[in-house]
Amino acid sequence: MIELSDNEILTVARKAIHTEMEALCEMEQTLGEEFVRAVKIILNCSGKCVVTGMGKSGLIGRKIAATLASTGTPSFFLHPGEAFHGDLGMISKDDVVLALSYSGETDEILKIVPFIHSNGNRMVSMTGKDDSTLAKNSDVHLNVGVKEEACILHLAPTTSTTAQIAMGDALAVSLMKLREFTSIDFARLHPGGSLGRRLLMTVGNVMRSHDLPIVSADCSCTEMIHTISKGGLGLIVICEDDRIKGIVTDGDVRRAMERLKADFFDIKASDIASMNPKTISPKEKLIEAEKMMTKNKVTSLLVADEQEKLVGVIQIYDIKL
Q1: How many CB atoms lie within 10 A of CB 264?
Q2: How far is CA 15 from the centre of its chain?
Q3: Helices H, strands E: what count in the chain?
Q4: Please, are residues 174 and 191 in contact by the beta-carbon 8 Å criterion?
Q5: pLDDT tens digits, 125-151
Q6: 0.85 exceeded by pTM
Q7: Could you report how far apart the first and last alpha carbons of the chain are, in Å?
Q8: In sequence order, what E strands does the chain have?
Q9: Residues contacting 120, CB < 8 A, separation 6+
Q10: Alpha-carbon separation of residue 125 from 90, 141, 259 (angstroms)
């Protein structure tokens, strides 16, 4: 083990990043007709995109398959070794195969190529050599060749795997555009994620609808403070026949105390309330509630039905859960 100064460590790291960056810049410039053909083959496929690869390429392949599947292109990863021992049955005639092998000579991949051809599947390969066996036996070949690996020995797959990931991402993003894949579609496939929750769930799903801190317009300051504390929402709502008339927040109360001092105890709720406050329908999506809160610089919204009657309160914490 050798000792390196902090600057020497950073130099090694920056060189690795720079090496990979240069490779991506070159790949960006050389991207062309073959990429377009690959995108169209996958887009027009009526089945799934079956991604396969061995070793490090296999790990990248798993990531590409997951990215495709989550962005509107049905896809799964097939281990080539397992495929050769029975899992080839997972490939239907309507599927397209995306095969990854940097050398283009990976034995496990080449062994399943005859089946892919006889089964009538189209195949897109991703290798570092245009004249490799896999490239020559593919319908479309995507060259991800790099001049050097970022590894200090120029042996471990580093720059080359970064190039594979970038090419896979480029495929996924292009397909998203062509499929007109929206944030709503993304949310449908990620219902457990934060974005999916905000795009799919409604205000009514998460709002607080019980024990709401409701007061009358002539509520005294003492009752205001008591109701705000008991309600646990940092606010009270002024209602008349269940219809929303105004809102008082704990901030309004603090500011009134500082401004009025001893006279504070003579006021009533309507004196410091924000009248006709912003409301939102319980049918609106959480993402709309978040937008409204951001626009109006508030952390709570009153939820009203079609008759403008109070049915709940939603706070930013309910959305961010």
Answers
A1: 15
A2: 30
A3: 15, 12
A4: no
A5: 999 999 999 999 999 999 999 999 999
A6: no
A7: 46
A8: 49-53, 75-77, 96-100, 122-127, 140-143, 214-215, 235-240, 243-249, 274-275, 279-280, 300-304, 310-315
A9: 93
A10: 19, 5, 72
